[in-house]
């Protein structure tokens, strides 16, 4: 891969953008649940999660606060959350027609996001911490200054 592309992909800004995109499903959902708090509380109660206000508050806290915790801890907590939502809110095996199709696609998306967490963990563990952004390796700074490293291209 050309050095300029490596530098772009491993820059501090790319790492920030990647983390925002990887956690987008969680924090966007948390913001939406907070903005429509009463409606989300009613939805919680429709899924037999009572009291809806307390359950929605816990969900918002998990989705917004966990995204700011340590990356692996947040990925684990949000992964468990997503797996638990499948039988509660996306039980496609109980549905028919369009509802079953929609819930099955949502469940597949949840499983895919949860499956991504181990690869993200491996990426984080494979590089030494960057002083300005945890999880970004120091090798980026060396390569982008023109110093050759033993990284494969």
Tell me about this structure.
The chain is an all-alpha fold and 153 residues long. 71% of the residues lie in helices and 0% in strands. The chain is built from eight helices and no strands. Helix 6 (71-89) runs antiparallel to helix 7 (97-125). The longest helix has 29 residues, at 97-125. The N and C termini lie close together (5 Å).
Gross geometry: globular
Radius of gyration: 19 Å
Helix content, binned percent: over 70%
Distance between the termini: 5 Å
Query: Into which percentage range does the β-strand content fall?
Result: under 5%
* Succession of helices and strands: HHHHHHHH
SSE-based structural type: mainly alpha
Instruction: Give the number of helices.
Output: 8
Show unreliable segments. Answer: 127-144, 146-153
Mean pLDDT: 76
Largest sheet: none
Number of strands: 0
């Amino acid at each position: 891969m050309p050095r300029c592309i490596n530098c772009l992909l491993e820059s501090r800004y790319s790492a920030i953008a990647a983390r925002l995109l990887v956690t987008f499903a969680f924090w966007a959902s948390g913001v939406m649940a907070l903005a429509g708090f009463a409606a989300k509380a009613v939805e919680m109660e429709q899924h037999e999660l009572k009291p809806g206000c307390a359950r929605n508050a816990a969900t918002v806290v998990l989705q917004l606060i966990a995204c700011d915790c340590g990356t692996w801890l947040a990925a684990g907590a949000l992964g468990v959350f997503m797996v638990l939502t499948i039988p509660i809110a996306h039980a496609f095996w109980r549905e028919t027609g369009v509802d079953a199709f929609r819930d099955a696609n949502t469940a597949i998306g949840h499983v895919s996001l949860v499956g991504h967490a181990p690869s993200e963990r491996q990426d984080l563990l494979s590089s030494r911490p960057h002083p300005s952004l945890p999880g970004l390796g120091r090798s980026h700074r060396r390569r982008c200054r023109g110093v050759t490293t033993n990284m494969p291209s």
